[in-house]
Design goal:
The structure holds 2 protein chains of 2 kinds.
Chain A: H1 3-10, E1 15-20, H2 31-39, E2 43-49, H3 55-66, E3 72-77, H4 82-91, E4 99-103, H5 115-131, E5 139-143, H6 146-157, E6 162-165, H7 187-193, E7 198-201, E8 206-212, E9 215-222, E10 225-231, E11 233-237, E12 241-243, E13 254-255, H8 256-264, E14 272-277, H9 288-304, E15 309-314, H10 323-332, E16 336-339, E17 345-347, E18 350-355, E19 359-364, E20 367-370, E21 373-375, H11 380-386, E22 412-415, H12 427-444, E23 453-455, H13 465-469, E24 475-478, E25 481-484, H14 494-498, E26 504-506, H15 511-517, H16 519-526
Parallel strand pairs in A: 1-2, 1-3, 3-4, 5-6, 5-11, 6-7, 11-22, 13-20, 14-15, 14-20, 15-16
Antiparallel strand pairs in A: 8-9, 9-10, 12-21, 17-18, 18-19, 23-26, 24-25
Helix pairs in contact in A: 2-5, 6-12, 8-9, 9-10
Chain B: E1 2-8, E2 22-28, H1 36-44, E3 49-54, H2 65-82, E4 90-94, H3 100-114
Parallel strand pairs in B: 1-2, 1-3, 3-4
The chains are: A alpha/beta, B alpha/beta.
């Protein structure tokens, strides 16, 4: 029987247990562990192989991984080979965070050769990995445009249930109807292809959100009234929206978008065209978009009618990535770039640039092309509900990676162009990155190799030390005794060290292991 | 010269062996895992010094781990002082994982002081 059949027909589970039979000199009697693992209905496959990190054992394991269906791996092997295993999982499209290693050489070495204890450890590891089921629930994406769609697409691809709440009446999309491109897909098409896992709500601004143990309780304002919904995580992916450009005061001015439209339709361009790539206040917000659009259109005009004079007035010469090539090429073709600190004025068919050094520079203009403006949507309510700060321009403030974003709740993620500017990979890549971080939050970070703390109820004196200490809020009091939630516990062990009544022990790393190894020092002294 | 090093698995690990210093390394999931009993126990078992290595302060994966560790190390040092022993035998260091040389330096210093 091929491994594919083993996985798909006989056992519908999702945990794979692989035991290294010690090519590196340690043997594990795997029989008992294998038998116990197979009794668990979530364990799809349990095998003991000659050596997991190389040779035939590795090859066999990769056949099982290739067959698909496995989501979590429990390996009894060497933790030093962690990277090898993570690489293997990544190669087969698995999330490498979902790997539990019971280390036969590292931690367990402390108790070797007491073999029964090490088996006990492995058994507990299978138990804890079972308890640590991913809390993958529905995800709420707040967004109005492409970033939100890119993020939704990523999450749907990875099997999550997604609700997209759009505060406005319509999404800003680049793909329409059944049109499919590599990066874009319309919301309508996405809904059709996702087997009902995708819900789109229009006119549904976020009113409030509350975090509790099970995730987020969110209140959305919908056309049918306020609705309370529960989500595991929230992704805020708001984009800037296109805004009206004020065209008054510059003769018969048009915007870059109008120009593009005209160029497409066999338009005969006038002799002198001036493009002004800044906003009315003369403020340059270091927008790639302004310069990009201007140089792109200038290049197009020059290609269509080389005798036309095109001048671009900009605050900041800036192009992004490959656009710089277009910018250079347009200069070679004779487009003139003029730098101006403030928005030039317009009088009698000429644009006047006021330069402190050169003086007034008058440029004849048959047509003035102004910049397309974008505006940050109103996000005060949303930011308040999610506890995110807004800066002076009304953009969402990015939480600092280094300082712990204490204000930002753990399951809230940000992307989209309506947050503070950063020169990054681009909106859709950033959206994907945020979605990936969210996915890691849902099921990745909570795997720690089976290290969890447990309370011995009889010893516990209910002093609340652990409750106050734990950075993950894992312990709580039940009937006068502390109980540690194994899903929340990240296995740092601070509570065990702090517990005054010594009632807490980490299941796979208790003090007896240290006590077993410390006398070795004394013995060495005697030699 | 025997040293027991309790090191957070994310912080620096001893890289180079230093002559005449025997090192027993115990890797912990977080420096906050050390408790005073383990530190005193290592001294009782014959260690000449105990070193707790945690991540840089404010950089702890578990937020407060290295502060917890420092608190306990200070407790143990106070106990040693009361007993009239050399408190410098137990130390806490905050060394990032890419600063292994600082740990090597510290081992050298232990060696100098031990002579």
């Amino acid at each position: 029987m091929s491994p594919v059949q083993v996985l798909q027909e006989d056992r519908p589970g999702w945990i794979g247990v692989f035991i290294c039979q010690g090519g590196c000199g340690r043997e594990v009697a795997a029989g008992e562990l294998l038998e116990r693992s197979l009794r668990d209905k979530d364990v799809a496959i349990a095998r003991s192989l000659p050596c997991l990190c190389g040779g035939p054992g590795k090859e066999e394991m990769s056949i099982y991984l290739k067959a698909g269906g496995l989501r979590t791996l429990v390996l009894v092997g060497c933790r030093e080979k962690l990277e090898t295993y993570e690489e293997m999982m990544a190669q087969h499209g698995m999330d490498h965070h979902r790997l539990e290693i019971f280390d036969i050489r590292g931690d367990a070495r402390l108790l070797m050769p007491s073999f029964r204890a090490s088996l006990e450890k492995a058994r507990r590891l299978v138990d804890t990995s079972e308890e640590r089921r991913p809390a993958a629930g529905p995800v709420l994406v707040l967004g109005n445009g492409r970033s939100a769609l890119a993020a939704c697409r990523f999450l749907l691809e990875h099997g999550h249930e997604v609700t997209l709440a759009d505060p406005g009446p319509a999404l800003e999309e680049t793909a329409a109807g059944e049109e499919l491109t590599v990066h874009d897909i319309s919301a309508e098409e996405m809904a059709k292809r996702s087997d009902g896992r995708f819900t789109l709500l229009h006119d549904a601004p976020l009113l409030a959100s509350r975090e509790d143990a099970a995730g987020y309780l969110v209140t959305l304002d919908s056309p049918l009234g306020e609705a309370e919904m529960r989500f595991s995580a929230i992704l805020a992916a708001m984009d800037e929206a296109m805004a009206e450009t004020d065209l008054t005061g510059y003769g018969e001015a048009i915007t870059q978008a109008d120009l593009e439209e005209r160029l497409g339709g066999g338009w005969k361009s006038p002799q002198d065209i001036i493009m002004i790539a800044m906003d009315k206040e003369g403020r340059s917000d270091f927008d790639q978009r302004s310069m990009h659009e201007a140089s792109h259109n200038a290049l197009l005009i020059k290609a269509l009618s080389p005798s036309t004079n095109v001048t671009v007035i900009a605050h900041e010469m800036f192009a992004f990535g490959q656009c710089e090539l277009g910018w250079k090429k347009s200069m070679e073709m004779g487009v003139i770039y003029v730098r101006s600190e403030k928005m030039p004025s317009f009088k009698n068919g000429a644009v006047i640039v006021d330069d402190p050094l050169v003086g007034k520079l008058s440029l004849k203009a048959d047509l003035v092309v102004l910049d397309d403006r974008v505006a940050v949507p109103e996000m005060k309510r949303m930011a308040g509900a999610l506890n995110i700060a807004l800066d002076g321009d009304g953009r969402l403030v990015r939480p600092s990676q280094k300082r712990r974003p204490a204000a930002l709740s753990q399951g809230v993620f940000l992307c989209g162009t309506a947050m503070q500017r950063r020169q990054g990979a681009g909106p859709s890549m950033e959206a994907k990155a945020a979605a990936a971080a969210l996915e890691t939050y849902l099921c990745g970070e909570r795997v720690t190799g089976g290290l969890v703390a447990q309370v011995d109820g009889e010893k516990c004196s209910c002093c609340l030390t652990c409750v106050r200490l734990c950075p993950y809020r894992a312990p709580h009091i039940e009937e006068g005794k502390a109980v540690i939630d194994p899903v929340l516990c990240q296995g740092c062990g601070s509570c065990q060290a702090a517990c005054p009544s010594r009632s807490i022990a980490q299941v796979n790393l208790d003090d007896s292991m240290f006590e077993a190894v410390l006398p070795l020092l004394a013995r060495r002294e005697g030699q | 010269m025997k040293l027991v090093i309790f090191a957070c698995q994310r912080a620096a690990q001893p890289e180079e062996a230093v002559d005449e210093v025997e090192v027993a390394l115990l890797r912990l999931p977080c420096a906050g895992r050390v408790d005073s009993r383990l530190l005193l126990r290592s001294l009782r078992e014959g260690a000449d010094g105990v070193l707790v290595v945690g991540c840089l302060e404010g950089n702890c994966q578990h937020e407060s781990g290295c502060f917890e560790a420092r608190k306990r190390v200070e407790q143990v040092r106070a106990i040693l002082k009361q007993m009239g022993m050399n408190a410098e035998r137990v130390r806490m260091l905050n060394i990032a994982s890419n600063e292994g040389w600082r740990l090597t330096d510290e081992l050298e210093r232990y060696k100098e002081e031990g002579k």
